[in-house]
TrEMBL record:
SMART domains: WD40. Signal peptide: none annotated. This is U3 small nucleolar RNA-associated protein 15 homolog. One of its GO terms (biological process) is rRNA processing. PROSITE patterns: WD_REPEATS_1, WD_REPEATS_2, WD_REPEATS_REGION. The keyword Glycoprotein does not apply. WD repeats lie at residues 118-159, 244-285. It is found in: Nucleus, Nucleolus. Keywords: Nucleus, Repeat, rRNA processing, WD repeat. Pfam families: UTP15_C, WD40. Its main location: nucleus. PANTHER family: U3 SMALL NUCLEOLAR RNA-ASSOCIATED PROTEIN 15 HOMOLOG, UTP15 U3 SMALL NUCLEOLAR RNA-ASSOCIATED PROTEIN 15 FAMILY MEMBER.
C-alpha cells in the first residue's frame, strides 16, 4: 500500500508592510508603562527645561512625574473641584491651571500653595497658558470669554467676549509676545493681539475645535475638531492649506516633535497618527486601548505620554542606542564547524545508516487518511484556520472534490454548520486565488440545501450575503470588461496611426530618391 501524501496547501505571497525610516524610528520606543490616575486625563505638559518632568492633570489633582518615575514626585491638590490644563512656563519654574469653579491658580514648581489666584471667569476654565514674555497669562472658559492676566499684580488686563460657545483650547505665539490664539466649540479659531481690543483674525474650522497648535515660526496654525485636522497659513490671512481626515472619530489633541517635522494627533478612535509636515501624509500610527484625550512629546523626543478617558497614563520611552564598540561579543564557533561533513560523499565500501524520519500529520490529514471526509472538513472550518489560514480550508475542499467526496462532506449539516460554511464562502469567494474552488462549493451547497430555504432565518441571511457578494463581483467584472474594450480600441487606434505614419515616411523616401535621380 502506497504511503499517504499530505494535502498540498498552495503557498501565496504575502504583501509585507512597507518599512520606512519613520517606521523604524517610531518603533524604537519601548513597551509602554501604564500608570493609573484618579480620573480622565485632560492635559499633559512637559517642562521645557531639564530634567523634563511632565505635569498630568486629572480629576482635582495635578501630578508631576519624572521622566522615568512611575510615582508622582510632586502633587498639587489645592483644588475644591476638578482641575484643568496645567501648563508650564517657558523657564519651567511656574505652573498655571484652571478649575471647575472658574478660578486660575499659579504655582511655583518648588512649592505647594498657589502663588497667585486669578478670579474673573464665571464658569469652568479649560484653557490656561503663558505668553512668551513670561509675565502674562491668558485663559479661556465656558463663559465664552478669553481673558489676559498680569502675573505681578494678579489683575485682569483685558477680557474678550467674541466666542459664542465654550472656549476649550489655545496657544501662544513664540515669535510675538502679544499674540495668542483660542479655539471654541462655536467652530471658530480666533487670533488675539493684546494691544488691540478685539480679535485680529477669525478662522472657520467647521467643527467644534478641540485643539490648536502654532508652529514655532508663527506662520502656520493647526486646528483639530471633529474628524478633521486642518492647517492654515496665518501670514496669508488664514488661508486653508490642507485638510486631513485620517481619524474615524473626534480628534482631541495635537503636538509637534522637537524639529517641527512631524505632527502628532490623538483621537477618540484610540489612534495616534503621525504626519510629515512637508507632505502631510501619515508616516506612522500608534494604537491604544481606549479613547485618547491628551498627548505630549518630550522636548528631546525621548518620551511619548498619552492620557486616556479611563484614567490610564501610557508612557513610552525610546530604547537607548547600543554602542557596538563597547560590547564584547562572545566568540562563536567558526562557520566551518557547522558545515563539517555535510558535503561528504559516501564511498562504495562505506555502510550508510539512515535515521528514520517520523512524519507528523495534521489533524485534517489524519482524517483524510482514514477517509473521514465530513470530519476533515469540520477540522478546517474552525475559526482560527478560517480566519488566519483560509488557504488550508480551500486546499482540503479541493482535495475532497478531487476524491469525489465533497458533496457527501457538505451534506447532512445542521443550521450552525451551514451558517459557518456559507459565511466562509461568501467572504472568500471573491478572492481570485480561491474563486475556482469556492464557486464549485457554493454551487453544491445551493443544490443540497435548496429544499430547506425559508426554514431558517440565519441560513437565509447567509444565502443573501452570498448572492450580494457574487452580484457585486459580476458587476465589477462587467465594468472591467468595458474598460478593457476601451483600451483595446485605443491601442488599435494607436497601431493604425503608427502604421500610416510609417507608410507615409516610406513613400516620401521613395519620392525623394526619384527626384534626386531626375536631377542627375
Amino acid at each position: 500500500m502506497a504511503a499517504y501524501k499530505p494535502v498540498v496547501v498552495q503557498a501565496c505571497p504575502k504583501l509585507g508592510e512597507r518599512i520606512t525610516q519613520d517606521t523604524l524610528y517610531w518603533r524604537g520606543y519601548k513597551t509602554p508603562v501604564q500608570i493609573k490616575e484618579f480620573g480622565a486625563i485632560n492635559k499633559i505638559d512637559f517642562s521645557p527645561v531639564p530634567p523634563y518632568n511632565y505635569a498630568v492633570t486629572a480629576s482635582s489633582r495635578i501630578h508631576i512625574y519624572g521622566r522615568y518615575s512611575q510615582e508622582p514626585i510632586k502633587t498639587f491638590s489645592r483644588f475644591r473641584h476638578a482641575a484643568y490644563c496645567a501648563t508650564y512656563r517657558d523657564d519651567g519654574r511656574l505652573l498655571a491651571a484652571g478649575s471647575e469653579d472658574g478660578s486660575i491658580c499659579l504655582f511655583d514648581v518648588s512649592g505647594k500653595a498657589p502663588l497667585r489666584q486669578f478670579e474673573g471667569h464665571t464658569k469652568p476654565v479649560h484653557l490656561v497658558g503663558f505668553l512668551s514674555d513670561k509675565y502674562r497669562v491668558f485663559s479661556g472658559g465656558d463663559d465664552y470669554s478669553s481673558n489676559l492676566w498680569d502675573i505681578p499684580s494678579a489683575t485682569e488686563i483685558i477680557s474678550y467676549s467674541e466666542h459664542t460657545d465654550y472656549v476649550r483650547c489655545g496657544c501662544a505665539s513664540k515669535v510675538n509676545a502679544d499674540v495668542f490664539i483660542t479655539g471654541s466649540y462655536d467652530h471658530t479659531v480666533k487670533l488675539f493681539d493684546a494691544r488691540t481690543k478685539s480679535s485680529v483674525m477669525t478662522i472657520e474650522h467647521g467643527h467644534p475645535v478641540e485643539s490648536v497648535l502654532l508652529f514655532p515660526s508663527g506662520g502656520l496654525l493647526v486646528s483639530a475638531g471633529g474628524r478633521y485636522v486642518k492647517v492654515w497659513d496665518v501670514l496669508k490671512g488664514g488661508q486653508l492649506l490642507v485638510s486631513l481626515k485620517n481619524h474615524h472619530k473626534t480628534v482631541t489633541c495635537l503636538c509637534l516633535n522637537s524639529s517641527g517635522q512631524r505632527l502628532l494627533s490623538g483621537s477618540l478612535d484610540r489612534h495616534v497618527k503621525i504626519y510629515s509636515t512637508t507632505s502631510y501624509k501619515v508616516v506612522h500610527s500608534f494604537n491604544y486601548a481606549t479613547s485618547i484625550l491628551s498627548l505630549a512629546l518630550s522636548p528631546e523626543d525621548e518620551t511619548i505620554v498619552v492620557g486616556m478617558t479611563n484614567g490610564v497614563l501610557n508612557v513610552k520611552h525610546r530604547k537607548p542606542e547600543e554602542k557596538n564598540e563597547n560590547l564584547q561579543k562572545k566568540r562563536q564557533p567558526a562557520y566551518r564547524t557547522y558545515v563539517k561533513g555535510r558535503t561528504y560523499m559516501p564511498k562504495q565500501e562505506d555502510f550508510c545508516v539512515s535515521k528514520p524520519v517520523k512524519r507528523v500529520l495534521r489533524k485534517y490529514d489524519n482524517l483524510l487518511r482514514s477517509f473521514q471526509s465530513s470530519k476533515a472538513l469540520d477540522a478546517v472550518l474552525e475559526p482560527p484556520i478560517m480566519l488566519h489560514t483560509p488557504e488550508v480550508t480551500v486546499a482540503v475542499m479541493q482535495e475532497l472534490h478531487r476524491r469525489g467526496t465533497l458533496r457527501s462532506a457538505l451534506a447532512g449539516r445542521d443550521e450552525k454548520q451551514v451558517n459557518l460554511l456559507l459565511t466562509f464562502v461568501a467572504r472568500r469567494v471573491i478572492e481570485p486565488r480561491f474563486t475556482p474552488v469556492l464557486v464549485t462549493v457554493a454551487d453544491m451547497i445551493t443544490d443540497i440545501y435548496q429544499p430547506v430555504v425559508g426554514q431558517s432565518a440565519i441560513v437565509d441571511k447567509q444565502f443573501l450575503k452570498l448572492q450580494q457578494a457574487v452580484g457585486k463581483e459580476i458587476d465589477y467584472q462587467e465594468e472591467l470588461l468595458e474598460v478593457l474594450g476601451m483600451m483595446d480600441t485605443l491601442f488599435a487606434t494607436f497601431t493604425k496611426k503608427r502604421d500610416t505614419s510609417l507608410e507615409e515616411n516610406k513613400s516620401n523616401g521613395v519620392t525623394e530618391i526619384i527626384e534626386t535621380n531626375r536631377n542627375y
